[in-house]
Write a structure and sequence with these properties.
With 249 residues, the protein is an alpha+beta fold. The protein folds into two domains: 105 residues; 134 residues, no CATH class. It is 26% helix and 27% strand. The two termini are 22 Å apart.
């Protein structure tokens, strides 16, 4: 009986953790460029003295759903939608380089190019991009940024920088606690993407399917309730066994 209780207990814990991942996805159903987190469980046999008769249900995170989200046309010159396996390099809070597919950008009053989350966008040299005062700005499909300076004519359009856009497969990235992606191998620099890497005037929406996520929440809740019932039933059976032993004595 203690084996069944152990499996049910660890299974209930894994179900709660999986619910956390699904609720995180639901909370980001409207976040531009968000990739749904994946969660699954696997059996892990506990090692130790005696027979390996205890099995632990362990939550595993196989990564994220890399499927592209819906395209949202905005017409904004600083909104970009990245091609498949293309990631925009930004500066994380600790100063390190991280990656996102959220292409909703703006220029701060100080001229710094930032994402909707306030993260500085990095240039191909790894430094944050500063935009001089301008009357017009254009982003090329290769990540180059060109402006027409204030008071100048169209013929004076000049390139002021190029965004660092890397080419990376889902296996090369992991999600951090801040929601940004990072390389699974910090020692290996991700390569700069060449050629057509983005579309301007559009954004990529979240790839979270809210209806599917809600169904998953209900399934996990029912699964958790069944596991709790197993624990209660085991406890009741143990109490009944103890009573029978006392009567027999």
């Amino acid at each position: 009986m203690d084996k069944a209780l152990y499996v049910a207990m660890t299974g209930a814990r894994a179900s709660l953790q999986a619910q956390g991942a699904v609720s995180h996805n639901l909370a980001n159903a409207d976040t531009k460029g968000f990739k749904a987190a994946l969660a699954a469980t696997e059996a892990f046999r506990i090692q130790g003295e005696g027979f390996p008769s205890r099995v632990n249900a362990v939550l595993v995170e196989p990564g994220f759903d890399a499927r592209p989200g819906a395209q949202i046309v905005t017409g904004n010159a600083l909104d970009i939608s990245l091609r498949q396996d293309r990631w925009l390099a930004v500066q994380a809070e600790d100063g390190s380089q991280a990656y996102t597919r959220g292409g909703e950008m703006s220029v701060t009053p100080n001229g710094l190019l930032v994402t909707a989350g306030g993260r500085p966008v990095l240039g191909e040299n790894g430094a944050p991009i500063a935009i001089p005062p301008h009357q017009s700005i254009d982003v090329g499909n290769d990540g180059t940024i060109s402006i027409i300076a204030q008071g100048e004519g169209p013929q004076t359009m000049a390139m002021v920088g190029r965004m660092r856009i890397v080419d990376a497969t889902p296996e090369q990235l992991r999600r951090g606690g801040d929601g940004l992606m990072r390389s699974t191998d910090p020692q290996a620099a991700l390569p700069q993407a060449n050629g057509n890497s983005l579309t301007t005037g559009a954004l990529e929406g979240s790839n979270v399917n809210a209806a599917t996520a809600l169904v998953q929440m209900i399934q996990l809740q029912r699964q958790f309730e069944m596991q709790v019932k197993v624990i209660r039933s085991g406890d009741e059976m143990a109490q009944s066994s103890n009573q029978l032993l006392r009567l027999g004595g």
